[in-house]
Amino acid sequence: MPGKDDFVKYNGEKVQKHYLNEYIYNLHAKFREENPNINIGKTAFAKRRPKYIIPTSFSSRRTCLCQHHQNMSLNFGP
């Protein structure tokens, strides 16, 4: 989040908020794929997310973040 007031206190210091652009389920699957020797469940993976990284509700977005629509927005540049 780019705003000046979009921060949280984390371990005693101000940290800028970040929104996840992917579901936790998909991130867990990607993590398991990249790290097959680490055995961690979805619940434990979700609990270890830092508090300044905020999961977002995709239904509340005004824009779509899917690959198809992101490619369309790249094609209509100046």
Give a brief outline of the structure.
This protein is of the alpha+beta class and 78 residues long. It has helices at residues 24-34, 42-47, 67-75; strands at 7-10, 13-16, 18-19, 53-54.
Would you give an account of this structure?
The chain has 78 residues and is α+β, with helices and mostly antiparallel strands. The chain has one domain (7-75). Helices cover 33% and strands 15% of the residues. The protein contains three helices and four strands; from the N terminus they run E-E-E-H-H-E-H. The protein has helices at residues 24-34, 42-47, 67-75; strands at residues 7-10, 13-16, 18-19, 53-54. It has a two-stranded antiparallel ribbon with strand order 1-2. It has a two-stranded parallel sheet with strand order 3-4. Strand 1 and strand 2 (13-16) form a beta hairpin. The two termini are 25 Å apart. The mean pLDDT is 77.
Question: How much helix, percentage-wise, in residues?
Answer: 25-40%
Number of strands: 4
**End-to-end separation:** 25 Å
Largest sheet data: 2 strands, antiparallel
Number of DSSP helices?
Answer: 3
Helix-strand string: EEEHHEH
State mean pLDDT (0 to 100 scale): 77
What is the strand arrangement across the widest sheet? 1-2
C-alpha Rg (nearest Å): 16 Å
Residue fraction in strands: 15-25%
